[in-house]
Design brief:
By secondary structure, this protein is an alpha+beta fold. The chain has nine helices and 18 strands.
Amino acid sequence: MQEIHDAPLAPLTTFRLGGPADRLVTATSDDEVIAAVREADDSGTPLLLIGGGSNLVVGDKGFAGTALAIATRGFTLDGTLLELAAGEVWTDAVARTVEAGLAGVECLAGIPGSAGATPIQNVGAYGQEVSSVITEVVAYDRTTRETVTLTNEECAFSYRHSRFKSDPERYVVLRVRLRLDDADGLSAPLKYAETARALGVEPGDRVPLATARETVLKLRAGKGMVLDPEDHDTWSAGSFFTNPILTDVEFAAFHARVRERLGDGTEPPSYPAGEGRTKTSAAWLIDKAGFTKGYGTGPARISTKHTLALTNRGRATTEDLLTLAREVVTGVHAAFGVTLVNEPVTVGVSL
């Protein structure tokens, strides 16, 4: 294992923000990951897990403890069954499944980060979620000090949530197992209207896998959601806020606020989210509350390509970013009575 003291963490995050860690350890095997976790737990040292750093907001003071960078590698394909080591680069793994002619994650192309992070957040985009293809997650249980295998059901997946996210101090994901679909080189049925429109087909249709992946990459790039070191619109964590899910009572109150603010004929985005629950669009809320693309005058601003992305224009601090995030949360709540929740994990700071 590689070990560095007083190690900068900003270069390990897509925001390029945050102070140093007391100690940074890089593990390249499951055994090294487990050994580093046990060492921290035995000594009572705070532990920060880092994969691709794409969902992480680290405070300007850094992290007083051990940061563990998980750099394990492994892509094992057996028919339609795929096992990924936690440190595998997710975008590369998606590309390889498409090359293999297997459907199920092609619309998750371009999402930055590591494979091990995908079940934690139940990563999803353009009509697909990893929970629909994950069969098992192999993890180290810090409570029992054993390696465990959790079934899909045991992972307790929901919208951008999982058992791992609800109990973040307990599990360290080591491997992710997925069952993909051999559809003769075609994608899974397209569920997202924007993707279907871009492809000139109807929702529910299938298209060649490579075409689906390339289309999603173009859509994401147009929103600044594909990492590019030269483009500050991509110096972000992607979507900074999750789409709110409201009860029927909450949605009725929200709907009334929309009509009051924007006129009787205005209908907010709404999508079924289970019995008695409706999901609406965080991006729509942000925009209609007055925080349009490019909003801000400081070193942290809303992306010029997508209102859901808060960005570092190159000289920002974490506090600059949080100040902007708090302004957006306050403004949206004042306008519509809905409280936005941040999607990235915060370290040493909070909204």
